Amino acid sequence: VVSTQSTGAKYPHSITNIRCLPSGEVVAMPPNATYLAFVPWKGPRYEQVSSFTEEAGGSNYTGLRIRWEGSNVHVIAESILYSIASTDHVTCCAAARDGRVFVIGYRSGLVTVQPLQYEQSTKGVSNMGAARYLTGHVHPITTVQINRAFSVIVSADRSGRVIIWDLNLMTYVNYFETRQSPVSCLRVSDTLGDIVTVSSSTRENRNISFPGLPSSVESVSEIYLHSVNGKYIAWSRCSHVITALAISVMSEGLYKNVIATGFRNGNIWLWNTWNLQVVSDIQTNFTSPILSLEFSHDSYSLAAGTEEGRLLVWTQTHPANN
Question: H-type helices in the chain, by residue range?
């Protein structure tokens, strides 16, 4: 039972990425940024990686910047993590939870994997060895995810192709496709390894009908569930645009995990992780699109970030207290 909602502060920017820390803190990030932290905490309190594109000397430089902060100070330094002078551009990036692997997706369809290390002497982050190049996409990468528990990297592109890579060997494992629609959201379960993807369509960009839905419906989202090896499990469609995705991480067999989806209309749904049936509808009382979702480490709290910059947190009553 959802018992508490905290609206918290309203930020001056959209919250497109959230990370819930083991300490109970929630890091809310602006567009084109991801979270990077080293475990154990040997260096900065946290680091925010943001993509950039700029012109210098007649060439286009695209890459990633790092800002790091101490526990009680604001930005104290900034460095370039990775940059190239070319016509290619960074489209998305993701970091492993231990901060030692960083994955970058590009407009060309290239995916690079960069090992990282924290330099105690310089109090900063540096590349640890050469980047590995993963080729298999021919369309712009829309999202990437790293899952340490199952040692996989999963990347998706604008055509709807999703590729699974072996994180240890840096090799291709398998792929699947989502009806030739861009994959906008992607998550990998830490408990089962299942891969959840979301593709959204409109009548205008697909020029097709939506079977089983009224003619008044102008856009839909399709949510897919595949195994960690790419085997199809389930599929569902809803007449609302999904804009955010998260999966709970409670112990399988003891609890029932759920998939949380945030919508453009500001609502949140919870889905069964086995068959993609909707099990709950959370009314947020806000109309701003939900752009990011993240469960806490014990999955008893769910944080959501909105387009208007509001951070929302719901807390579930512990079963022992029911």
Answer: 203-206
Question: Rg of the Cα trace of the chain?
Answer: 20
Residue 291 near residue 11 (C-beta atoms within 8 A) = no
Residue pLDDT, tens place only, 53-112 = 444 444 444 556 655 554 433 333 344 455 554 567 888 888 888 878 889 898 899 999
CA dist 303 and 296 (Å) reads 8
CA distance 232 to 210: 21
Query: At residue 203, what are phi and psi to the nearest 5 degrees?
Result: -60, -35
Instruction: Measure Cα distances from 228 to 137, 147, 188 in Å.
Output: 19, 10, 8
Chain centre distance of CA 267: 18
pLDDT at 233 over 80: yes
Residue with tokens 């998550």: 187
Taken in order 136, 141, 143, 146, the sign of the CA dihedral is: positive
Measured CA to CA, the distance from residue 312 to residue 306 in angstroms comes to 8
Q: How far apart are CA 240 and CA 268, in angstroms?
A: 11
Please tell me the distance from the alpha carbon of residue 192 to that of residue 178, in angstroms, as a whole number: 21
| pTM attached to this predicted model | 0.83
How many CB atoms sit inside 10 A of residue 299's CB?
Answer: 19
CB count within 10 Å of CB 271 equals 23
For residue 31, is the peptide bond before it cis, meaning its omega torsion is within 30 degrees of 0? no
Tokens for 186?
Answer: 């992607």
Strands (E), 39-100: 46-56, 59-69, 75-85, 90-95
Q: What is the mean pLDDT of residues 269-277?
A: 94
